[in-house]
Amino acid sequence: MESSEITRILQLHLSNAEVQIDSPDGVHFSGVVVSPDFSGLSRVKRQQLVYTALQEFIEDGSLHAISFKTQTPEEHQA
Fold first, then answer.
1. Which one, 25, 42, 43, 76, has the greatest CB density within 10 A?
2. Is 71 in a helix, a strand, or coil?
3. How many degrees, rounded to 5, is the angle at CA 19 between CA 14 and CA 20?
4. Residue 64 belongs to domain with CATH number
5. How distant, in Å, are the alpha carbons of 3, 18, 20 from that of 53?
6. Residue 55 neighbours by CB under 8 Å, 6+ apart
7. pLDDT tens per residue, range 19-59
8. How far apart are the C-alpha atoms of 7 and 49, rounded to whole Å?
9. Counting beta carbons within 10 angstroms of the beta carbon of residue 34, is it exposed (0 to 12), middle (13 to 18) or buried (19 or more)?
């Protein structure tokens, strides 16, 4: 799976999402996801939103390993 595909999927599932995904090897991904959808949510709930968007690809093995930070736009600006 390509970083650009992960970005596209997250932008479809989260309002006004800014997504930065890096992968040194095309298998392990890390990044930052910024969306107003995260406002008022715990870190666990934010992670659940992202994993829900990517669940199909995790289950079919297209996406093996990903870690990310989730932030609101205000948190990202700070």
1. 76
2. strand
3. 165
4. 3.30.300.90
5. 14, 15, 16
6. none
7. 999 999 888 999 999 999 999 999 999 999 999 999 999 99
8. 14
9. buried
Domain that holds residue 70: 3-77
- As for how many domains the chain has, the answer is 1
Q: Most distant CA pair in the chain: distance in Å?
A: 37
Predicted model pTM: 0.91
Pairing of strands 18-22, 28-34: antiparallel
SS (H, E, C) 26-56: CCEEEEEEECHHHCCCCHHHHHHHHHHHHHH
List beta partners, residue 6: none
